[in-house]
Amino acid sequence: xxxxxxxxxxxxxxxxxxxxxxxxxxxxxxxxxxxxxxxxxxxxxxxxxxxxxxxxxxxxxxxxxxxxxxxxxxxxxxxxxxxxxxxxxxxxxxxxxxxxxxxxxxxxxxxxxxxxxxxxxxxxxxxxxxxxxxxxxxxxxxxxxxxxxxxxxxxxxxxxxxxxxxxxxxxxxxxxxxxxxxxxxxxxxxxxxxxxxxxxxxxxxxxxxxxxxxxxxxxxxxxxxxxxxxxxxxxxxxxxxxxxxxxxxxxxxxxxxxxxxxxxxxxxxxxxxxxxxxxxxxxxxxxxxxxxxxxxxxxxxxxxxx
Length: 306
Ligand SMILES: Cc1cc2nc3c(=O)[nH]c(=O)nc-3n(C[C@H](O)[C@H](O)[C@H](O)COP(=O)(O)OP(=O)(O)OC[C@H]3O[C@@H](n4cnc5c(N)ncnc54)[C@H](O)[C@@H]3O)c2cc1C
Prior knowledge:
This protein is of the alpha/beta class. It has helices at 11-23, 45-50, 55-58, 63-66, 130-139, 152-164, 277-305, and strands spanning 3-7, 28-32, 71-74, 79-83, 88-91, 96-99, 102-105, 109-111, 124-126, 145-150, 168-173, 186-189, 194-200, 203-209, 214-216, 219-223, 226-228, 240-241, 244-247, 258-260, 265-267. It has a 5-stranded parallel beta sheet with strand order 3-2-1-7-20, with helices on one face. It has a 5-stranded parallel beta sheet with strand order 9-16-10-11-12, covered by helices on one side. The protein has a 3-stranded antiparallel beta sheet with strand order 4-5-6, with no helix packed on it. Strand 1, helix 1 (11-23) and strand 2 form a beta-alpha-beta unit. Bound molecules: flavin-adenine dinucleotide. Flavin-adenine dinucleotide binds next to helix 1, helix 2 and helix 7.
């Protein structure tokens, strides 16, 4: 029985997993994620925050999926190192390790906030995962003035949601899209960058810009600065470009039996651009399909030589 590990439980990892369980019933699939959540739809997080989608509607599958005897789902399991020579993954504190025959890396992206004072403190939220969306939800009732920092499109979606909740909003981003409707409660700043998030003790008080202007804020949300989650590839020999895993049209990497899909990977013949949810889903299915072909080729050549 081939041992397949998938890193990542979102669009790409979940679809790869579903395809393998359906089309390679002889394989043992282990899916590893650093999150403490069931499979969920990240592309609905704005609607979830807006209250238009309930928690159960975020779920990608029902309980039966997890009961599949060929699936091991490991939550809260951050991969910290990959040894492709010995085909081993190291989890958490390096004491736990998992061996594989085939590996799919679908570790996606994360938000890396600018390195300014205060950015790592409590009261500053990165809006990328369900857990972070929940943090924002619970912080909203107490936050009067909210500062959004990041990518214009995501800021605009948050402005639309928060304006309905009657909040004062400052956006620090690139210029807004034409669909932005200005209002007395929203100030969109695109000619300066954040320089400091100011706290008094543990309490978030204000944001200072690089033009020295300071405005009050009781909650800061970062929604941009996306970077691929590939730190664990250091010394793995897997080829990257600008930290994205380089793949070919089969979603194979430069290392045999290692595939990558979704927003963590890039093709050298394509321009780097953000991937949509459906693209990541399709890539997961394609990577899993190519892995199954590789497995079948190996089985056939083994049978010939035996
Ligand atoms: C707030 C928000 C709203 C969005 N809205 C839309 C939308 O409306 N429409 C749309 O098409 N797209 C939307 N997107 C983009 C869409 O969500 C992405 O295209 C999609 O999530 C990419 O999926 P992925 O599987 O490649 O990676 P990700 O979703 O980033 O998932 C990566 C997975 O890998 C895991 N992981 C990472 N590193 C490790 C590690 N070291 N060890 C173990 N596990 C690890 C993570 O926990 C996660 O499970 C939105 C994204 C966000 C953040």
